[in-house]
Amino acid sequence: MKNKLLVITLGICTAVCTVIADYAYTGQILDERFAEVMRYEALNADPHTRYGGYSVEELGHGYEKPTEVFGKVLLDVPVISQYPELPIGCEVTSAAALLQYLGFDADKIYLTDNYLIWDDNFTYDDQMVSHGPDPYRVFAGDPYDWGYGCFAPVITDTLNRYFADAAPGYEAVSLEGINSADIEKLLNEGVPMIVWASRDMKPYNYREPAEWLLNDTGEPFMWIGNSHTLVLCGYDSACYYFMDCDDKDEITPYLKERFLNRFEENGSQCVAVKIPD
């Protein structure tokens, strides 16, 4: 009889504990969803935005989700320096780091020599007005020597040329205009992103020597001085974390507000990779 009562008591206790645990877990999920909704509302952003035709959840398919530790999410992106070989090649170095995170054996030199398209054809006309390439179409300059750099469409095309040879089905996707809520959701899914900001998140320089007329269209263009490309690979309550190829030895944190200011000023340019289903 005593054993029967003990079994019944244990059963009741187990059931009660299960209900309490389930209630606590459900409450935590609801709190997280409410906080997420509040973040989108604060940003005046649409949580259903699609990037390159994909939702955030679809972009995260196939990635290994990281473990959040005391509110910090960090992806194990390898740290690569652009120096000494590529003194202005931060964009392609960041692309190489992203590929290595995905498990590809591609270094910055191989990617530059075989898949990055660059154009260092800068000239002056009779009025001493400078003419040069469009950084939205090609790398403007020589990444091994001198020049300026390139923007998200060029790195998207570079990665997709690489994937066409090495891994059909993988796809680099431009996430232009992405908001901070979706940035953090992608990091939660395990997706690192190549982003355009500035060196050490310092203010940009706007100066005439970095102005030219585009060779293709004749339109005026100004390169933003002090711009820089990094791999965004983590966050906590105060900072975002980056693989910063500007001779940094380890993953580097920058305050969220400073990064977002530089990021938005540089067109909110962002590139991620969609793993095939």
Structure keywords:
277 residues; alpha+beta; 36% helix
Describe the protein in words.
The chain is of the alpha+beta class and 277 residues long. It has seven helices and 14 strands. Helix content is 36%, strand content 21%. Strands 1, 7, 8, 11, 12, 13 and 14 form a seven-stranded antiparallel sheet that branches. Strands 3-4-9-10 form a four-stranded mixed sheet, with no helix packed on it. Helix 3 (90-101) crosses helix 4 (108-114). The protein starts with a helix and ends with a strand. The mean pLDDT is 90.
Low-confidence stretches: none
Strand-residue proportion: 15-25%
Largest sheet: 7 strands, antiparallel
Mean pLDDT: 90
What is the overall silhouette? globular
Number of E-type strands: 14
- The secondary structure category is alpha+beta
**Strand and helix order:** HHEHHEEEEEHEHEEEEEEHE
Cα end-to-end separation: 58 Å
- What is the helix tally? 7
Radius of gyration: 23 Å
Q: Considering DSSP H and I runs of 4 or more, what fraction of the residues is helical?
A: 25-40%
